[in-house]
């Protein structure tokens, strides 16, 4: 059986509100796990600055297992088996990590806008990131790494991706070349990226599948979602959550 784990990150900015590093830009983190002949876990990180954005996270149904939003600034479990299995420091580390990623997206969407000379006042710009891995179940129940994915897109177009076989970044557009050169020049970053995809990502996939199956989540999910909508009024809000899903 082939199992997959993916992380999605998205930063969205409406330029009609002038970009400023002092302006709070909320953030979304999502993990999705799909069980069946192919098991998938997705993590979404989204930075929002829009009165109304709707995210269709899947064409199937998903179960929420943890949640983070920029208003409350805390990662919390939404399934009892997550609360039981994972210690308190897991949630604290998750909170700190998501706060850090929020700032990373805030800075880098501004860098890309400057690089592409996007100082207009009417456009919506989106920076997305996907990180993930696929593993194949072995006879002894362990997972064997099959493929890793770490890629970025900007305004819907491919921007940069990591080739986990050769260990280098691939830039399909001229605008991405400066980032490719910079990141290729940092050996420790390439080693970390490759190591995460081949080891840590697979480890987390194995754990989440095991935890959910022990609680019977695969057969009896009790709350399902297929879309997420982020709404804001005068203040900006975003949410981070983890979803578990079944392939019907």
Automatic annotation (TrEMBL):
Gene3D superfamilies, alphabetized: MHC class I-like antigen recognition-like
Domain of life: Eukaryota
Gene Ontology cellular component terms for the protein in this record: external side of plasma membrane; extracellular space
GO biological process assignments: immune response
Domain MHC class I-like antigen recognition-like: 68-214
Keywords: Glycoprotein, Membrane, Transmembrane, Transmembrane helix
Pfam families for the chain: MHC_I
UniProt xrefs under PANTHER family: LOC571647 PROTEIN-RELATED, MHC CLASS I-RELATED
Record-given protein name: MHC class I-like antigen recognition-like domain-containing protein
Organism: Neolamprologus brichardi
């Amino acid at each position: 059986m082939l199992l997959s784990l993916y992380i999605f990150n998205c930063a969205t900015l409406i330029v009609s509100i002038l970009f400023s590093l002092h302006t709070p830009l909320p953030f979304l983190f999502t993990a999705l796990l799909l069980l069946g002949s192919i098991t998938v876990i997705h993590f979404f990180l989204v930075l929002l600055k829009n009165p109304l954005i709707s995210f269709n996270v899947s064409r199937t149904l998903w179960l929420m297992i943890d949640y983070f939003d920029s208003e409350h600034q805390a990662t919390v479990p939404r399934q009892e088996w997550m609360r039981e299995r994972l210690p308190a420091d897991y949630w604290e580390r998750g909170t700190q990590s998501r706060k850090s990623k929020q700032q990373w997206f805030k800075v880098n969407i501004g860098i890309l806008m400057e690089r592409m000379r996007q100082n207009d006042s009417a456009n919506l710009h989106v920076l997305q990131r996907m990180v993930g891995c696929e593993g194949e179940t072995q006879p002894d129940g362990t997972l064997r790494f099959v493929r890793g994915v770490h890629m970025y897109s900007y305004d819907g177009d491919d921007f940069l991706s990591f080739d986990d076989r050769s260990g280098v970044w691939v830039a399909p557009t001229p605008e991405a070349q400066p980032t490719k050169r910079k990141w290729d020049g940092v050996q420790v970053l390439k080693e970390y990226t490759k190591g995460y995809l081949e080891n840590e990502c697979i480890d987390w996939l194995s754990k989440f599948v095991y935890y959910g199956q022990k609680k019977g989540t695969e057969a009896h999910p009790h709350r399902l979602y297929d879309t997420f909508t982020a709404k804001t009024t005068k203040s900006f809000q975003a949410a981070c959550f983890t979803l578990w899903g079944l392939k019907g």
